[in-house]
Amino acid sequence: RTLNKRLINRRRCFPHVVNLACQAILGALTNVDYAREPRTPEEQVSFLEAVDKDPIATLRALIRVIRASSIRRQQFSQIVKTFMGKDLQLLRDVDTRWSSAMLMIERALILEECIESFFNVPEFHDLRNKYRLDDEEWNALSVAREILLVPFAFQQRLSAQKTPTLCDAIPSFEAMIRTWRDMQSEFFGAAEEAVIEKGLDKLSVYLERAELVPAYIISM
Question: 94 forms bridges with which residues in the sheet?
Fold first, then answer.
């Protein structure tokens, strides 16, 4: 078949491709539009509606609520110091960095007990019904972290500044696909299987294109 010369000579950025795959997965898990601050009253209403739809949106909303008040921040900080022996802050995600969502979820899982204790403070009882995550939702966050941790680990490896990484691109694509495929088998027939497929679709397309680029083949 005749190949487009520009396609053959194009060397794709691995982190960019991983970002596309992870954005596809996040899009299946949560509404990524709500990773930024609502700019209008209408967006604020939509944001609150999104809280009822998925645990990532709920977590994101809770973090904003805590950070928006100095009293809540101080109270939460004291709770964290009591439970953890040091001050750890809840992290916020941003819509331009998929890894920030994974880090936000990971930190929240570490501080789950602190978050539950925060809701038990009498003056914050009004937040419980709106923002409290149940066990099923915490489990969903744990699964989301597990899925996103796969590309995060590979990207960290290939983003090392002092190590030539071009030769690792295709093997890393293949390794990520194998790892996600293995994970899919664990979730066979469940919703998580379809979520992972969203990322696999992106990786498979770019792997096929990368294998046409001589620079990748020569570097191996």
Answer: 97
